[in-house]
Amino acid sequence: MNDPTKIAVVTGANRGLGLETCRQLARLGLRVVLTSRDPAKGQAAAEALQGEGLDVRHQTLDVTRAEDARRLDDYITAEFGRLDVLVNNAGVFLDPYNPPGNSVLDADLDTVRRTLETNLYGTLQITQSLLPLMGGTGRVVNVSSGMGQLSEMNGCCPGYRFSKVGLNALTRILADELRDSRIKINSVCPGWVRTDMGGPGADRSVEQGVDTIVWLATLPDSGPSGGFFRDRQPIPW
Ligand code: NAP
Predict the structure, then answer these.
(1) Which of 181, 213, 215, 217 is a good FRET partner for 23, with 20 to 30 A between their CA atoms?
(2) Contact 215, 28 (CB under 8 A)
(3) Would you state the torsion angle of the CA atoms of residues 163, 217, 182, 222, taken in this order, to the nearest 10 degrees?
(4) Burial state string for 111-150 with b = 16 or more CB within 10 A and e = fewer than 16
(5) What is the pLDDT of residues 135-193, one digit of tens each?
(6) 3-state secondary structure 45-101
(7) pLDDT tens string 8-18
(8) Global confidence as pTM
(9) Residues enclosing ligand 1, CB less than 6 A?
(10) Domain extent listing, the chain
(11) Nearest CA to ligand 1 atom 11
(12) CATH class for domain 7-234?
């Protein structure tokens, strides 16, 4: 329990930005718990990183399932006794891009609800469960999107946009409530990244996409809290 190695949990980490975040954090010497909703995919991803000589282990976590959150809480408590970093990365983009259905007036409410269930309520649930393990210090990174910026809000994709606006509100609320602690919580836009979600035409690699995520996850005590960042710079809400 006196081991100084920092413990990190990353959600939605069997592929894309979550997987690369695990790799980069482990390369920096953190002990990483790679979580995924599909046990086989998560185990395979963790084994691939172990094959690179990295300290990564897998736990199953569907962020929408309260029993998964409790089981992860029990595992972290028993195994490490504390948590230092939580990267809330798991996310879905369910809105159709093309008509019909991409206008807010046509939006399918079930699609909107399912998006919020994962991107916002799931993230809230995991944060409620794991934050007490931080014991007054720690780093929480909420992987948001420029599509959640009210200052640049355009049409299309209401479910995803609502979810990321809500996630940014969670960042602000929590940062205020925790202002007397040493916990830092920030939102990040990774940019448009070549993952399954971003597609092959996106202009950033996963390595570029996770740079600011990893930076926020490893901020020094003098670092910011309650902000929204892209390319390590503050951006408007
Ligand atoms: P991705 O390749 O589609 O990966 C999404 C990950 O989230 C997958 O591992 C997926 O698991 C997981 N996930 C979905 N629902 C989940 C749930 N209920 N519980 C646990 N895990 C769940 O997407 P990505 O591009 O890496 O995106 C990661 C984050 O970055 C998301 O929050 C996204 O909104 C944000 N983002 C991405 C971009 C971009 O251009 N790529 C831009 C801005 C923001 P399965 O494999 O089981 O589906």
Answers:
(1) 181
(2) no
(3) -120
(4) bbebbbebbbebbbbbbebbbebbeeebbbbbbbbbbbbe
(5) 889 999 999 999 999 999 998 899 999 999 999 999 999 999 999 999 999 999 999 99
(6) HHHHHHCCCCCEEEEECCCCCHHHHHHHHHHHHHHCCCCCEEEECCCCCCCCCCCCC
(7) 999 999 999 99
(8) 0.98
(9) 11-12, 14-18, 36-38, 41, 61-64, 89-92, 118, 122, 143, 145, 189-190, 192-193, 195-198, 202
(10) 7-234
(11) 12
(12) alpha beta
Tell me what pLDDT residue 98 has: 66
CA dihedral of residues 112, 12, 144, 196 (deg, nearest 10):
-80
Most ligand 1 atoms within 8 A of CB, residue of 38, 60, 88, 195 to mutate:
195
Active site residue 121: no
When pLDDT is averaged across residues 75-84 and rounded to a whole number, the result is 98
Quote the tokens at residue 165: 């606006």
H or E stretch at 185: strand 182-188
Scan for tokens 């602690």, then name that residue. Answer: 181
Residue 114, both tokens: 């399912």
Q: Look up residue 45 and give its two tokens.
A: 């991803």
Strand partners, 59: 35
pLDDT of residue 97 exceeding 80, the answer is: no
Best residue for ligand 1 mutational test, from 11, 17, 189, 208 (most atoms within 8 Å of Cβ): 17
Residue 106: pLDDT band (50, 70, 90) is confident
